Amino acid sequence: MAINLQKGQRINLEKEGGAKLQRFCVGCNWGAITAPGFLGMGKKTVDVDLDLSCVMFDAAGKLRDHLYSPLYRKDFLSQYGLSPGKLDSQDGALHHTGDDRSGDTDGDDGLDNEIITVDLKRVNPDVKQIFFFLNNCGGEDFSQIPYASIRMFEGTPDRVEKVFAAYNISADAAYQGKTALVMGEIYLHNGEWKFNAIGDAYPHPNLGVTIQLISKQYIRR
């Protein structure tokens, strides 16, 4: 049975029977917004462009690697000292399926819009923390999005074999004005990988500010 994650919950990456969860996917699914049409007649669909990203840090808190959309402008990223976006980690342990710029426009199809695959056996030994986070690149905030969920599952981006853990973000007034979400981290503790469901939302205007906050507030030293 899948674990329904709560904010701040820490779990061991251990499957039923005691085997370690080594290869899995982290996926995010969200819906486009339905709004009244012109002069209140009918309805229109407003695309929602969320970006699922991750950053990797070593024991000293140094940013070692990243996965975020290659569509981010290099001149924007350089303002925050960030390298161009890419879809594969240097060690080949993580892969991003690419940028979805609309969300589900015909209702929840049960599939994830953006996915990062993880193979913990291939992670660079210098990497001790991996953070997963969302940024909303549009004008709306999370309280306006009809649904959004994050889950960890065994399988491939095209086939879900077994959901290990899930974290739901429903449209809620508490998310008003919030456009960034630090979802969680995978961290190495006493030689074992564990997961911490952070679930903190912020009014960050962009990915660069979110990464700066992660490096200042969430690094284990």
- Low-pLDDT stretches: none
**Total number of beta strands:** 14
Return the CATH topology.
Lipoxygenase-1
Rg over C-alpha atoms, rounded to the nearest angstrom: 17 Å
Strand content: 35-45%
Output the number of helix runs.
Answer: 2
Number of domains: 1
Secondary-structure element series: EEEEEEEHEEEEEEEH
| Relevant CATH superfamily | sav2460 like domains
Largest sheet: 6 strands, mixed
State the secondary-structure class. mainly beta
The overall pLDDT, averaged over residues, is: 90
Strand order of the largest sheet: 1-12-11-3-9-8
CATH architecture annotation name = Sandwich
Identify the overall geometry. globular
**Helicity range:** under 10%
CATH class: Mainly Beta
* End-to-end C-alpha gap: 34 Å
Structural write-up:
This protein has helices spanning 74-78, 207-217; strands at 3-4, 10-12, 23-30, 33-36, 43-46, 50-58, 63-67, 94-96, 114-119, 127-136, 147-156, 159-170, 180-189, 192-202. The chain is mainly β and 221 residues long. It has one domain: sav2460 like domains (Lipoxygenase-1). A hairpin with a 4-residue loop joins strand 6 (50-58) and strand 7 (63-67). The protein is globular, with a radius of gyration of 17 Å. The mean pLDDT is 90.
